[in-house]
Amino acid sequence: MNFTETAELYYGMLYIVLGIAVLVLSKFIINRMTPYRIDKELIHSDNPALGVTLAGYYAGVVIVFLGSVIGESSTESATVGSLLLEAGIDLCYALFGILALNLCRKVVDLAVLYKFSTVKEIITDRNVGTGAVEAGAMIATALMIAGAINGEGSFLSTLVFFVLGMGLLILFSRFHALLTPYDDHDEIEKDNVAAGAYLGFSLVALGIIVLKATAGDFISWSYNLSWFAGYAVLGFLGLAVLQKLILVIFLPGADIEEEISRDRNLNIAWIGGTMSIGTAALIFFLL
To answer: Which of 205, 50, 34 lies closest to 136, judged by CA?
Structure first.
């Protein structure tokens, strides 16, 4: 093993330790930003709704951290000081991502599932459907942030695309409500897990598509914003068409209103959600 390989090994080990530290920090922060005791809800109350939410939150933290790390410069010509500086910058971006994900939960409560209190639904009613929407929104947000901080850019550009991403999630939730023949809010509030999971999967799929728009170097505001807008439109229209095709091809004869609203059929959510995410991944890698 030569010097460069040894340096890369220690560099990778440093970031593994840093990643674990970021996850611990994210647990500390979310504990301070919630009006309930998370450990009590998870361990003593066995609250599955909060478990789903936290799964999305921690997945989002990892996605943001990887977005800041992947694509770093080679360690061959780097000094110890420059490597530590890069690690410090990445830690700052990870901290921003953690705060952004906690803010995302507030956005879901106030602007996505705005007809009821998400805290009440998750903690009091143990509503897994609400937890699925929060989880999907946080993963989607993390994907958008990861793309914005990956490559050459600035904190300002990251902040702007985070705000745009939040606005896009709100608009897409309203658009999704227009596509479904049932009332999203009404079904989710009635503890319909299928309705919540279906929306949550759709939000993740949108996040993957928009990741394509935010990933890479920041060229100029006009270039990057037009790229973002183009993929946002592609995501909206593509997912709308996809929902119809899934029912026709993969679930022939299925009535989405009957299956989700009356039967609460989770098969629709699992299959439809998987196909949505798979198609979004195809768009990401092939377009």
So the answer is: 205
Q: Are 157 and 148 in contact (CB under 8 A)?
A: yes
The number of residues making up the chain comes to 287
Are 104 and 136 in contact by the 8 Å Cβ rule? The answer is: no
Task: Say yes or no to pLDDT of 239 above 50.
Answer: yes
Rounded (10°) CA dihedral 132, 195, 262, 183: 130
Q: How far apart are CA 12 and CA 83, in angstroms?
A: 11
| CA 201/CA 239 separation, integer angstroms | 11
Taking every pair of Cα atoms in the chain, the longest distance, rounded to a whole number of angstroms, is 64
265 φ/ψ sector (left φ>0, alpha ψ -120 to 50, else beta): beta
Q: What share of the chain has pLDDT > 70, as a percent?
A: 94
Q: What whole-number distance in Å separates Cα of residue 77 and Cα of residue 57?
A: 36
CA distance 23 to 31: 12
- Token pair recorded at residue 76: 């061959």
**142, 60 Cβ separation under 8 angstroms:** yes
- Report the distance separating Cα 41 and Cα 195, nearest Å: 24
Give the integer Cα–Cα distance in Å for 195 and 256: 10
CA 150 to chain centre: 16
pLDDT digits (tens, 9 = 90+) for 58-98: 999 999 999 888 855 555 555 667 777 888 888 899 999 99
Per the CB < 8 A criterion, the answer to whether 52 and 135 are in contact is yes
Cβ–Cβ < 8 Å for 212, 147? yes
What tokens does 52 get?
A: 């789903």
